[in-house]
Write a structure and sequence with these properties.
The complex is a heterodimer of chains A (89) and B (289). Chain A is α+β, with helices and mostly antiparallel strands. Chain A contains 3 helices and 5 strands. Chain A has helices at 36-46, 51-61, 66-82; strands at 6-7, 12-17, 20-25, 30-34, 87-88. Chain A has a 3-stranded antiparallel sheet. Chain A has a two-stranded antiparallel sheet with strand order 1-5. In chain A, a hairpin with a 2-residue loop joins β2 (12-17) and β3. Chain A is globular, with a radius of gyration of 12 Å. A 6-stranded mixed sheet of chain B has the order 1-6-5-4-3-2, with helices on one face. A 5-stranded mixed beta barrel of chain B has the order 7-8-14-11-10, surrounded by 4 helices. In chain B, β10 (136-142) and β11 form a beta hairpin. With 289 residues, chain B is α+β, with helices and mostly antiparallel strands. Chain B has helices at 71-89, 117-125, 159-166, 220-229, 239-255, 270-288; strands spanning 6-7, 22-26, 29-38, 41-46, 50-55, 61-65, 93-102, 105-110, 131-133, 136-142, 145-149, 154-157, 182-185, 197-205, 214-218, 258-262. Chain B has 6 helices and 16 strands. Classes of the chains: A alpha+beta (89), B alpha+beta (289). Chains A and B meet through β2, β3 and β4 of A and α4 and α5 of B.
C-alpha cells in the first residue's frame, strides 16, 4: 500500500444514492455502481487521503482482515484507473 | 408541454456525408433511425420516411417528408420518437414506459421495446385502471414528488394482444406504414386518464419467465442504473445534458419505489398477473402514503 493519492477527473460525476454510489463517466455515458464498502473507499479517496490512510480508516470501520482489504483496495483503485474514473494526483 | 413541429416540402432523402453518431434498429432493419449532429442542432433520419431537424435545446423541429409518407405515419413518428427526444433535450425526464392509474396515483411499466409494457397497460386499462401513456412517459417533479403527464390517448399493440385483451370491437386508428402494430384508441373499454397523476411505483420488466410473478426490489445504485437505462437521450455525448440528467435521475430513483418484475407472458394468466401486481403495488402505496 502506498502514499499515492488520487482524484476524480472532471469528466466523472460521483453521486451517493442511499448506501450505494453511482459513478457516471461523461466521456462514455456509462454508469458504474459501488456497494457500501466501495462507497466508503471512494469517499476517502476523494477526500484526498493517501491509500495507506484509506486502508487504515476502513480497517477501523469494518471487520475485515488486513490482507483481504489491501488486495480489495488495490483491485478497486486499479479498476477505477483502468476505466479513467480516478487519476493520480 | 407537448412540442410541435413544422413541415417542409416533400423531398427524396439524399445521401448524407457524415457517419451517424447513433442508430436505432427496428426489427431486422439496423439503421431504421440514424442521428447526425449539425452546427445548430440534430438531424434524425427515419429511413425512407422522413428527416427531422431538431434545434439545439429541443424547442423546434422541422420535418422533411420523403415521397409517399402519409400523415398518420408522420404524426406517429413525431409524437412517439421525436417529441420524447425534444423533451429530453429540453431538460425533461422521459422514459420508455407505459403508465396506468392505480388508487389515485400512477404506476409505470418500464422497458425497452418488445418487453410487454403496452400489453400490461392495456391489461390494466381493460379492468378500469385508466392509462396515461404508452411508449413514452414524461415526468414532472412537484414538491418532492413526481407527476406523470398524460401522453397520446392510444396504446400500440400487436394484433394477438389486442385480440386477447380487447376482442374484435376495439377502436383501431389508421395504420402506420412501418409497423404492423395497431394503435388502439381510448374508449369505454380502454379508458384514458387526461390529467397528471403522481407516480407511486415503477416496475422494470425483466426477461425471466418464472411460473409466478416475481418482484425484486431495486435500491441504491441498482435502482438508479435501471432508471438511467430507460431514459430517452438525444445526444449521448452531450456532457452538460448527461450531467443534468444524472442529477435529476438520482433523487427520482430514491423517491419512487422501484421493482424488477419478472413474469411469464401468458394471456391465460393475465388476470392473475394483474392481481399480483395490484396487490404488490397496494402494499407499496400503503408503505409510502
Amino acid at each position: 500500500m502506498t502514499q499515492k493519492r488520487y482524484a476524480v477527473p472532471d469528466h466523472v460525476i460521483v453521486k451517493k444514492v442511499g448506501e450505494d454510489t453511482v459513478i457516471l463517466d461523461l466521456q462514455s455515458g456509462i454508469y458504474f455502481g459501488l456497494d457500501p464498502v466501495g462507497t466508503r473507499m471512494i469517499e476517502l479517496i476523494q477526500s484526498g487521503l493517501p491509500l495507506t490512510d484509506v486502508r487504515a480508516t476502513i480497517l477501523d470501520e469494518y471487520d475485515v482482515p488486513e490482507t483481504v482489504l489491501s488486495d480489495d483496495l488495490t483491485d478497486f483503485v486499479d479498476t477505477l484507473l483502468a476505466k479513467n474514473l480516478v487519476e493520480p494526483v | 408541454m407537448i412540442p410541435a413541429y413544422t413541415i417542409a416540402p416533400t423531398r427524396p432523402q439524399a445521401p448524407l456525408a457524415d457517419t451517424p453518431y447513433m442508430t436505432w434498429s427496428l426489427g431486422d432493419e439496423d439503421d431504421w433511425a440514424a442521428f447526425y449532429r449539425l452546427p445548430d442542432g440534430y438531424l434524425v433520419r427515419f429511413q425512407s420516411l422522413c428527416d427531422f431537424f431538431i434545434e439545439s435545446g429541443g424547442s423546434e423541429a422541422l420535418c422533411t417528408p420523403a415521397p409517399g409518407l402519409d400523415e398518420a405515419t408522420r404524426e406517429h413518428v413525431f409524437y412517439n420518437q421525436v417529441a420524447p427526444l425534444m423533451l429530453s433535450e429540453a431538460g425533461w425526464l422521459v422514459f420508455h414506459a407505459s403508465c396506468v392509474e392505480v388508487e389515485g396515483g400512477a404506476i409505470a411499466f418500464i422497458a425497452q421495446s418488445g418487453r410487454g409494457k403496452s400489453t400490461l397497460a392495456a391489461l390494466f386499462a381493460t379492468a378500469g385502471h385508466r392509462f396515461l401513456c404508452d411508449d413514452a412517459m414524461v415526468i414532472s417533479p412537484r414538491g418532492g414528488q413526481y407527476d406523470v403527464l398524460p401522453n397520446q390517448p392510444h396504446i400500440r399493440l400487436w394484433s394477438d394482444s389486442r385480440s386477447a385483451l380487447l376482442g374484435e370491437g376495439a377502436n383501431i386508428a389508421e395504420p402506420i406504414s412501418y409497423t404492423p402494430k395497431e394503435r388502439v384508441m381510448c374508449a369505454e373499454g380502454l379508458p384514458y386518464c387526461d390529467q397528471p397523476r403522481t407516480l407511486r411505483a415503477a416496475y422494470f420488466l425483466g426477461d425471466r419467465r418464472p411460473p409466478k410473478a416475481r418482484f425484486t426490489p431495486l435500491e441504491g445504485a441498482e435502482a438508479l442504473a435501471a432508471w438511467a437505462s430507460a431514459v430517452f437521450t438525444l445526444d449521448v455525448d452531450d456532457r452538460r445534458m448527461l450531467a443534468g440528467q444524472f442529477e435529476r435521475l438520482a433523487p427520482l430513483s430514491q423517491t419512487i419505489p422501484t421493482t424488477r418484475l419478472d413474469y411469464r407472458r401468458s394471456y391465460a394468466r393475465a388476470g392473475v398477473l394483474r392481481q399480483s401486481i395490484l396487490a404488490h403495488a397496494s402494499t407499496l402505496l400503503q408503505a409510502t402514503s
